[in-house]
TrEMBL record:
It comes from Pelomonas baiyunensis. Belongs to the ATPase B chain family. Component of the F(0) channel, it forms part of the peripheral stalk, linking F(1) to F(0). The b'-subunit is a diverged and duplicated form of b found in plants and photosynthetic bacteria. This is ATP synthase subunit b. It is found in: Cell membrane; Endomembrane system. The gene is atpF. Its main location: membrane. InterPro entries: ATP_synth_B-like_membr_sf (IPR028987), ATP_synth_b/b'su_bac/chlpt (IPR002146), ATP_synth_F0_bsu_bac (IPR005864), ATP_synthase_B_chain (IPR050059). It is a single-pass membrane protein. CDD domains: ATP-synt_Fo_b. It holds the Pfam family ATP-synt_B. F-type ATPases have 2 components, F(1) - the catalytic core - and F(0) - the membrane proton channel. F(1) has five subunits: alpha(3), beta(3), gamma(1), delta(1), epsilon(1). F(0) has four main subunits: a(1), b(2) and c(10-14). The alpha and beta chains form an alternating ring which encloses part of the gamma chain. F(1) is attached to F(0) by a central stalk formed by the gamma and epsilon chains, while a peripheral stalk is formed by the delta and b chains. F-type ATPases have 2 components, F(1) - the catalytic core - and F(0) - the membrane proton channel. F(1) has five subunits: alpha(3), beta(3), gamma(1), delta(1), epsilon(1). F(0) has three main subunits: a(1), b(2) and c(10-14). The alpha and beta chains form an alternating ring which encloses part of the gamma chain. F(1) is attached to F(0) by a central stalk formed by the gamma and epsilon chains, while a peripheral stalk is formed by the delta and b chains.
């Protein structure tokens, strides 16, 4: 056997195998590899798109959180102002009520002073009549001398 003939004989099945592989086996494999590469590229594009959407969503969330914080701060400030206003109003009402109570107490005290003066006048008038009785050594008739007693009360 000649080595050249063996190489040519081995070369024929190899060429047939290469042709069959190139014609029937390689195109489906290449197609599958291309489809897989397209799916991977699509997946990477989707991942990039999802990252971008996530970044946008995070920005939106941060923006909304900042807005919510601002609104919350405003609401708290408004509530504090309202509470201060309510406290001031309550203080004002309490002061007005205290002033009314003090005015009523003063009016009542004035009335009691007037009543006490009237009572003292009555007592002084009675004492004056008794003193006059003793001085004159006779009875003074209150009914007869009512006008005199009234003038005496007013003078006191």
């Amino acid at each position: 056997m000649n080595i050249n003939a063996t190489l040519w004989i081995q070369w024929i099945p190899f060429a047939i195998l290469a042709w069959v592989t190139a014609k029937f086996i390689w195109p489906p494999i290449a197609k599958a590899l291309d489809e897989r590469a397209a799916k991977i590229a699509e997946g990477l594009a989707s991942a990039d798109k999802a990252k971008a959407e996530l970044a946008n969503a995070n920005k939106a969330v941060e923006s909304q959180l900042a807005q919510t914080r601002t609104e919350t701060t405003k609401l708290i400030g408004d509530a504090e102002k309202r509470a201060a206003a309510l406290v001031e109003e309550a203080k004002k009402r309490a002061e007005e009520e205290a002033a009314k109570i003090i005015a009523q107490a003063k009016a009542e005290a004035d009335q009691q002073v007037v009543r006490a003066r009237e009572a003292l006048r009555e007592q002084v008038a009675v004492l004056a009549v008794k003193g006059a009785e003793q001085i004159l050594q006779k009875e003074v008739n209150a009914g007869v001398h009512a006008e005199l007693l009234t003038r005496l009360k007013q003078e006191l």
